[in-house]
Structure formats: structure tokens, C-alpha cells
């Protein structure tokens, strides 16, 4: 817990104070009078409960370059956080014509759903879903693959890099365009991520001229990725839903043969976070774990039910 608290404090040290300590973060859509205002929790001890500067940069990149998203039929944001700014922007610029899925982990999903409802019109919201996605675990509920993946400020801890890349591979096909916005902080973490990029993706950095957005920090970079034409090795594949259920049986079985719902698991986590908060620790929840290395399924299609509408 001390390591997580230290990592959280280091991240906060690089952020603009207003971003994290205001109750709302507001961004204007072009020259129009429309404003997207997402609510955050500046008192929370969970990293995803506040908006990070890279997500604002990616939001503005999307809304100022809508031509990059024309014709896309499916878009997914990983690690959307409480605000889901990139997912909201993509729903706006595609005028409700694309299926948009915003994902994160349990503690921030209520915030994410509220912000989606508050900032999208009825038409824009018709094809938008909010779903839970733990990096490195099966993605059958998400109805992958997607035409576009969006990530903002997701490269923050070395242990999360491999699960993140596993999910990027599982959610994409070879024509999927992936945009990753991130702020340069920890050189070792960034180097680990770049190593995976070089191995599995063709990538380029979005030119600074295309990122001339309001208040952008020079330390924020945006990468455009596409999968390489190579077979995904066993250790990078994500297992089937049944394999994952067996692998994580301890999370679902309470000992008397009854399955425990994911919400119960997150209730336990939130109790732990509350306990840590009482002791003054700052906790960051990683969206992924690398416990599925031995799973072998790399099928990107799925039959998942749509239970995540917002």
C-alpha cells in the first residue's frame, strides 16, 4: 500500500492543480457553445476518480480532428476513469452512429455512467455502453474487436503494462487504429511500454502540430498504433470466459458453492480502500493483472451480452 500511495503522489505532482482539486472539469467543443463538464471526486483516494491531463489532450484531439473518426463503427476507451472524456468526444464527433464502449474498473463506474448521461444527447447515448474491463482478463462482454481503441494516461505503473497490451491485442484487429495519450513521467515504465509497442505494433507519434490544444503540456505525447502482422504468442493471449472463471474461482466462490458477484468483489475492495484512506494512504487501482499468462485463446470475437448500457 505504501508503494501505491507513493506512486499516486508522484503522479499528482505532475498535474495542474486545477485539474484535480475542482469538482468539475469543463472542456468546450470547438467554437460551439456546447461544454462538456465531467464531475470528479477530488477527495477520493482512487486514481480513476479524478481527471488526468492526458485525457483532456485526447478529448481535444478527437473533437478537433473528427475526420479521423468518420466511418468507424465501433470504438472502445480503456481506462476511461470517472470522466470518460475520450469516449464522450468520440460519441459526439460520430453523431451517435458508432457503437462506443467506455471501460474501467468497479470503483469508478458509477461516476463514469453519470458523466456519460450528463454530457451526451439521447441520440448520442443510444449506442454508448459503460462496461467493466480488467486489463489482462477475458473481454467477451465487450463485443470485440473494435475499429478504434482510445487510452489516456494508462501507462503509469510497470506491472500494468503487460496486461494493458494483452487487452489492446485482444480488443483489436489488424485494421484497428489505437490512440494512446500519456504523460512522460517514469522513464522505466515508459521504456517497458515502448518495448511492447515495438514488438506488437506499428506506431508513430502524433505530430505536435496536431496537438495544438488549449493548455497542453509539452510532456504529453499521443501515439497512433496498429497491430503488426504477426501471431500473438501464448503469453500475450487472453483466455476464454470459462477459463477465467476457473482461474479466479476464489473470487467468485464463497465456499458454500454459491457464486459471488463481481459487485461483491468490488465492495470488498472499496472497504479496503476506505480503511487505507483512514490511515492516510493514497491508493491507485491498476486496471490489469498479469495472472492470465498461461491462457491460450486469441479469438477476438465474442457472444457477450449487452448488460452495460448507461
CATH homology superfamily name:
Vaccinia Virus protein VP39
Largest sheet: 7 strands, mixed
Q: Please report the number of helical segments.
A: 11
SSE class: alpha/beta
Number of domains: 1
The strand count comes to: 9
At CATH's second level, what is the architecture? 3-Layer(aba) Sandwich
Strand order of the largest sheet: 5-4-3-6-7-9-8
Strand residue content: 15-25%
Sum up the structure in keywords.
single chain; 310 residues; alpha/beta; Rossmann fold; 7-stranded mixed β-sheet; two-stranded antiparallel ribbon; 9 strands; 35% helix; 19% strand; globular
Q: What are the SSEs and their pairings?
A:
Elements: H1 2-13, H2 17-21, E1 24-28, E2 35-39, H3 53-64, E3 74-78, H4 85-93, E4 99-104, H5 109-119, H6 122-125, E5 128-132, E6 146-152, H7 158-170, E7 172-183, H8 187-200, E8 201-205, E9 220-227, H9 241-247, H10 249-252, H11 262-278
Parallel strand pairs: 3-4, 3-6, 4-5, 6-7
Antiparallel strand pairs: 1-2, 7-9, 8-9
Pfam families: Methyltransf_16
Biased composition (Basic and acidic residues): 244-255
InterPro entries: Methyltransf_16, SAM-dependent_MTases_sf
